[in-house]
Specification:
homodimer, 415 residues, alpha/beta, Aldehyde Dehydrogenase, Chain A, domain 1, Aldehyde Dehydrogenase, Chain A, domain 2, seven-stranded parallel sheet, four-stranded parallel sheet, 14 helices, globular, amino-acid biosynthesis (chains A, B), NADP binding (chains A, B), glutamate-5-semialdehyde dehydrogenase activity (chains A, B), Ald_DH_C (chains A, B), oxidoreductase (chains A, B)
């Protein structure tokens, strides 16, 4: 099959999208919200067709499932995006040059944003709203097992766009087959950025195959370092929260580093984890300290592969380190540069850690669970970037924009 | 050959580079400048070995050649970079969240910057100075026919770094063979960004092969639209300058679009081009207007492939358009989104053009020759990005940085 016509439609629509007024955009978003509430039956029926093809025991089943309450939440999210200030047109820099040229750097849309994701129909609404708000057209490649849901959602989006006199090419759902993904990855000249959302396998595949610019999101191999100066009670709360609040998310804690002089505190520090049923993979000193104190069924000796693993489960690795530099070295070696934390009372240790650790978010004395667009006050989130180019950490509206240089003259030539 | 040890050295050096003080960095840059002046003989001898392997008639010969005057200029450039304010540590955003967390977004180095370039030894100095200034380690893959020059320059850089007690891994010259390029393109986990500088062929190759994030630079297919309202004398000056100031650069004019009501002015508008010896490829109405007025030897009918060509020569395409929207359509179809200009007195035409055209730099009533880091006041330039992710147009120091989120708490957990 030939996919270029989809890409051409998106490119053409993106030209028009760049000059839409905020009022036009917000009217669309509010009408989509209203429709998401009104067309509940239509959307749930399509969703039921997808659900019927999946085992209820599949971990993806819950993410695939739409309910009236979830549609209500999605409608609220759409209205929230409508209420945000558009970053477009923001003047990032403005100056007059000695030769009389007026120079300004102005925020503009990226153009065409491609998103590859798994069976999560809520993402279809999210990506559309964030892209439209930022003047971008979007090309969606959703999971094939959510295709009925996505088709229904996109048909609803198209109806609203057409009623508002806008180009349906602003949102395109690509066919569910794998070849469409391949074509999207190679759509040089059509796609300004591609954002894969999903498993590490998907992200690795995209990195291997993409010929268009990509923003990597995803994997978080997250550490928290319990310094010699750390407060024990704070450590108990923060480590419990970072590990167990939601184990399936990328900011969840994977590896606790403990200063060797505080290994003695491990039984108390880890007690809340035991209550929560967390399996521990401990290095020799930590294992010795926990043995007899931590439930035997949940305590295992660590092997090398437990360090640098993103567990996404009630599991944690514990490693003893001689000092802060050793903690920094371990993090540098194993971190995926997502979220890293220190627990310490010593200001010098805190500053050294915050300055030295190379990660999207670095924390002192707080749970890494806060790495999230809404928590950071971005208003919305299209993903969490784990690369350093363009956007780092939670990506909101600004991260879906580029800029251009506008130069106004009265006949200037360069000597 | 195995190249991973080069990448590991650069990665290790980048950790140290991120926490260097501005004084340490500037001391290195000033000493390198002093050495570039003092070791003239050493550098010119190495350069002579490269020159001896190239025909003097080769267009690359002049770019390869170092002279005492050029080394003097390079030394001044190094001192200029030393005098600029470092963007590192700049606080891009700072707020206190309702839960008491203090959140700041702070500029940090990218990490390891790879640059692939052709036989231009001056780039070796430039990339080193801009990367060191921004706390990055750099991996250099220069043209093989400049390898003696590059080796000499990098040995000089290493001596200075060692004298200043810094890690020689801050700058690494990769071996001249093609396999090193291939390894660099695939150095996932080591290279944070790769910037290819050179021919379209090189850039296409990088886009096809790279598994690490890339910033594309280069090709400029540049238009200037002469509106129905444009001033003729201004047009003569600006078009001449944009086309002929330096034909080999990416911001040079490639295609003049003329409003059909102003085709009558073409003989006067193009007269300065004739004097400069510019070959014209004109569409039928423009050809008819120029016939008998423009030197016959320099006037040819345009064929389709002349539109969308980057000439890099004393050649220009001329196309007649019915109106501004037709000009915008032509630009949208053929532009490489580098630099685009309108010549007009009508304010509405100007605003429509500046808002609608999707390019790194959009001009009203000025020569596109100004698209340049120094002209835009960036202080320095590592390349001109033609993509929309991360950096667009001239890239200076800020564009060689990323940011991280620093979160300070007193035990906050997320509910």
């Amino acid at each position: 099959m030939e996919y270029t016509h989809f890409f051409k439609k998106a490119l053409a629509a993106s030209r028009a999208a760049a000059v839409l007024s905020p009022d036009q955009v917000n009217a669309v978003l509010r009408e989509v919200a209203a429709q998401a509430r009104e067309k509940t039956d239509f959307l749930l029926e399509a969703n039921a067709q997808d659900l019927a093809r999946m085992e209820a025991a599949d971990p993806a089943y819950d993410r695939l499932k739409l309910t009236p309450a979830r549609l209500q939440d999605l409608a609220q999210d759409l209205e929230k995006v409508a209420s945000l200030t558009s970053p477009l047109g923001q003047v990032l820099l403005q100056k007059s040059l000695p030769n009389g040229l007026s120079l300004s750097k102005v925020r503009v849309p990226l153009g065409v944003v491609g998103v590859i994701y798994e069976a999560r129909p809520n993402v279809t609404f999210d990506v559309f709203s964030l892209c439209l708000k930022t003047g971008n057209a979007c090309l969606l490649k959703g999971g094939s097992n959510a295709h009925f849901s996505n088709q229904a959602i996109v048909s609803l989006l198209h109806q609203v766009l057409e009623r508002q006199g806008l180009d349906a090419g602003l949102v395109t759902l690509l066919p569910p087959e794998r070849e469409a993904t391949q074509a999207l990855l190679q759509a040089v000249g059509y796609v300004d950025v591609l954002i894969p959302r999903g498993s590490q396998g998907l992200i690795d595949y995209v990195r291997q195959q993409a010929k268009v610019p990509v923003i990597e999101t995803g994997a978080g191999i997250v550490h928290t370092y319990f310094d010699v100066s750390a407060d024990l009670e704070m450590g108990r709360q923060v480590i419990l929260n970072a590990k167990t609040r939601r184990v399936s998310v990328c900011n969840a804690l994977d590896c606790l580093l403990v200063h060797e002089h505080r290994v003695i505190d491990l039984p108390l520090l880890a007690a809340p984890l035991a209550e929560a049923g967390v399996e521990v993979f401990a290095d020799a000193p930590a294992f010795a300290a926990l043995q007899g104190e931590y439930p035997a069924a949940l305590l295992h000796p660590a092997t090398e592969e437990h360090f640098g693993t993103e567990f996404l489960a009630l599991k944690i690795a514990i490693k003893t380190v001689a000092d802060l530099p050793a903690a920094l070295d371990h993090i540098s070696l194993h971190s995926s540069k997502h979220s890293e934390a220190i627990l310490a009372e010593d200001p010098l240790a805190i500053e050294t850690f915050l300055n030295s650790v190379d990660a999207a978010a670095v924390y002192a004395n707080a749970s890494t669970a806060f790495t999230d667009g809404a928590q950071f006050g971005l208003g919305a989130e299209i993903g969490i970037s784990t690369q350093k180019l363009h956007a780092r950490g939670p990506m909101g509206l600004e991260e879906l924009t580029s800029y251009k240089w506008i130069v106004r003259g009265n006949g200037q030539t360069r000597s």
